[in-house]
Design goal:
Layout: E1 2-7, E2 12-21, E3 24-34, H1 41-59, E4 63-67, H2 75-94, E5 98-102, H3 104-112, H4 119-129, H5 139-165
Parallel strand pairs: 1-4, 4-5
Antiparallel strand pairs: 1-2, 2-3
């Protein structure tokens, strides 16, 4: 399975493609889609859509793991990121890509084991889990790769729980 992780943003959207092969996770590619600040928002959303379409055309992922919006103190930024997420979710849905959404805390929990982990801890875990020579750059790409890894870990846990629910408890 090939999973496309996405760290949404209007100025910079990170993407990371991770594949499972023989029980190991492998980084296929990662990068960013950027839009210039001086361009109207409608044009930037179009550029984001076009950039994502190129990624989808090139890799044809089986599933996508999209980071949910973390609402900080800047409402205007949150609105812009929300608009970018809308374009991303629509593009994925129109292509028939299964979408999974995870909060930043869920992604940190899945990779580091602690939902309050720092960015550097996350980046080191991405490097270690994928056996990479260095941490993916820029940060937005590394965050997107983390989102993809999160989906693999979450899917494994869901499968384990489903298998366990189908069995009787010991001693029953």
């Amino acid at each position: 399975m090939l999973v496309l992780g996405i760290d949404p943003g209007l100025a910079i959207t990170g993407y990371g493609l991770v594949q499972e092969q023989d029980g190991n996770l492998l980084l296929v590619d990662c990068g960013i889609i950027t839009t210039p600040a001086r361009v109207p928002v409608s044009k930037r959303l179009q550029q984001l859509h076009e950039g994502l379409q190129k990624v989808l055309d090139t890799y044809q992922p089986d599933a996508a793991s999209v980071e949910e919006l973390f609402f900080g103190s800047n409402a205007k930024t949150a609105m812009l990121v929300g608009q970018a997420r809308g374009v991303i979710l629509l593009a994925l849905s129109m292509r028939g890509v299964t979408i999974h959404e995870y909060t930043p805390m869920q992604i940190k929990q899945a990779l580091v084991g602690y939902g309050g982990a720092g960015k550097k801890q996350m980046q080191r875990m991405v490097k270690m889990l994928l056996d990479l020579p260095e941490i993916p750059t820029p940060d937005d790409a590394a965050d997107a790769v983390a989102a993809a890894i999160c989906h693999f870990h979450s899917a494994r846990m869901t499968d384990l729980l489903a298998a366990h629910d189908g069995q009787e408890e010991p001693g029953s």
